[in-house]
Design goal:
Shape: flat
Number of helices: 3
Distance between the termini: 57 Å
Order of helices and strands: EEEEEEEEEHHH
Strand order of the largest sheet: 2-1-6
Oligomer: single chain
Largest sheet: 3 strands, antiparallel
Radius of gyration: 24 Å
Number of strands: 9
Helix content: 25-40%
């Protein structure tokens, strides 16, 4: 049994063709005596019907037009400059962390091999911190917004934290 994964007029990326298209028709294929279609194909106006596996949905954008923060993640890349036996003290021998900041697996932050070899635990922590930066910024922004709405009802320690969060966000956005 199959269920439609996309809907009419949805923008999708057609992998075999390498282009974006709108779904013109959802085409279910029925079998006699069944309540649901056995498979669903999609007509995107490119001369043939495509299966769901051949299509990718468009990722929703955040309010500022950037890709959503959950896309920042740490992946492992193969360590090309040392064999795994020579780096047994590394947290994951034979690999190093790469922070991917887009939907492509190659975009983002990397550390030079020599620097990673000097202190791999420090670099691993830095990678996790960088990957968490959008979530931390969102948290800081929420704290500042909450502080603005709370007015005078906040303890002094929270007021100081909100001011620090505001200053950090201003620095990140280049407003200082």
């Amino acid at each position: 049994m199959a269920k439609a994964q996309f809907h009419k007029n949805q923008r999708v990326y057609v992998k075999p063709v390498g282009t974006w298209a709108l779904i013109e028709h959802v085409v279910p294929h029925w079998a006699k005596g069944l309540d649901e279609p056995i498979r669903v194909h999609y007509d995107v106006g490119l001369g043939r019907e495509f299966a769901a596996e051949e299509l990718l949905s468009e990722e929703p954008m955040s309010e500022n037009g950037q890709a959503s923060a959950h896309e920042w993640r740490v992946v492992r890349a193969r360590n090309k400059w040392q064999p795994a036996e020579d780096c047994a003290r590394h947290p994951v021998p034979g690999t190093y962390p790469v922070v991917v900041t887009s939907d492509a697996e190659w975009g983002g932050w990397r550390v030079p091999g020599a620097e990673y070899d000097l202190d791999p635990l420090k670099v691993e922590e830095q990678a996790r911190l960088i990957a968490s930066a959008p979530l931390l910024a969102s948290f800081a922004s929420g704290l500042v917004d909450w502080a603005r709405k709370s007015g005078e009802d906040m303890p002094n320690a929270l007021v100081e934290l909100a001011h620090s969060a505001h200053d950090i966000l201003a620095h990140v956005k280049g407003q200082t």
